[in-house]
What we know:
Elements: H1 5-10, H2 12-40, H3 47-64, H4 69-95, H5 99-121, E1 134-137, E2 140-143, H6 144-166, H7 168-178, H8 180-185, H9 190-216, H10 224-237, H11 242-262, H12 270-282
Antiparallel strand pairs: 1-2
Amino acid sequence: xxxxxxxxxxxxxxxxxxxxxxxxxxxxxxxxxxxxxxxxxxxxxxxxxxxxxxxxxxxxxxxxxxxxxxxxxxxxxxxxxxxxxxxxxxxxxxxxxxxxxxxxxxxxxxxxxxxxxxxxxxxxxxxxxxxxxxxxxxxxxxxxxxxxxxxxxxxxxxxxxxxxxxxxxxxxxxxxxxxxxxxxxxxxxxxxxxxxxxxxxxxxxxxxxxxxxxxxxxxxxxxxxxxxxxxxxxxxxxxxxxxxxxxxxxxxxxxxxxxxxxxxxxxxxxxxxxxxxxxxxxxxxxxxxxxxxxx
Length: 295
């Protein structure tokens, strides 16, 4: 036991920095997935495809068109949100009362998006750069891209909390998540709220895709791992709970960093699956239950 104390203390600041940066990004990755299930009651298996689309929109705008990383990020945020909204209006709206059909359609869509991107851009990951340079924080070397990803992820998460809890549209969203019929009785149009949610979830996924792509490269299958990650985080936090997703992201991020640092780096990606299995067996309702009203 004592033999592990010194290395742990020596690397504690590095580990803490990595946990905070990774977990904030994980929270952003999972938020859109949480929103759609919490309000619409359906699982959007095209969530990972939206992440991939966001990364490649940023790649085209920043690298191929030469407008820079932040313009690429803005384009990914806006265009992915609009595409997600159009997807809802054109297809999901017609079958939103059939959760199994939504799962099937979104899964097929995700596969189709991946294959189109692989056909157009090939299988090799594309370099996506927001900023160059590094900085030392608490003994840990962090890239400026990671810092920007952390800062903007945190800003978007706080903005989502503020929107849901303190705006008229956010309160309508909460009411719809509790009961579509009840919301309709007080004059809230559920379809309009669902459209807002799909646009917002797509925009958040697009931004997450840019951050992930800038850290690990943009590739046609990059959305698969975040989809599994999102599902694990959402189940852990309580399906439909925004605060549960944020807390779940920090739990998963912490466990993953500790596993990589002190067990074996080859186990990266295994932690979310283990968490998912454990939660389903021990506490299937998650940490905060299912209601989005608990945001």
